[in-house]
Input
Amino acid sequence: MTEERILAWTPNAVVFDCDGTLMDTERHWEGARELVLEAFGVFPGPEFAERSKGVHFTACGRLMAEAAGRPELADVMTEQLLTGFRYLVAQDPVTTPGAAELVARAAEFAPLAVASNCPRDVVESCLGTAGLLGRFSHVVVPDGDVRPKPEPDVYATAARACGAAPEDCLAVEDSLCGIQSAVRAGLRVIGVGPRPDPESLSLVDLWVRTLDDPGLLAWARSRAPLAPLSR
Output
């Protein structure tokens, strides 16, 4: 990792993943997957959870259909997955530790965007409930020509929307799928989570266990604020 590339640098834009990074919703995806699969007599273990982490919800639907031995039901299981996830999130929308402060601090020195594989309504609802949505200039999700992670499109689009070159932007991500997307788009990356896999560690510039990491927050607090717009 090249930690100094992050902590001695001020990005021109910061692009956050949502699920598992800003919002503590990865457990809701896992719960929704379990609800769908258990109806088919399938009880997924940690390996399935890791394979499906961060992937687009349609790809997750296909993985579940294959696990259940019913590939023809991929579309049905995708809809069931989304229904279950929306329900669980509505019951318990919680930000990850440090997310609110990091977003607030980052908004002082750079434009912010979200790049997510989730449906737009889910992302905006989660962030709105948490009081974070107003901090973001742009929310980018797969749509039309914008392909889902691990393709680079959502991060490249978010950087462009913020008016910054990808190499001048910072991505904050929790999954290998998302990290691959950001790296392919040319962004520098902070990875976050308690148990990073070796490939993720090899790709990021810095890894922290949580967004309330003291060093990360100290860096964010120390950045020079954006100059006010001239009138």
Notes: DSSP finds eleven helices and six strands in the chain. The beta strands are 13-16, 112-115, 138-140, 169-173, 188-192, 206-208.
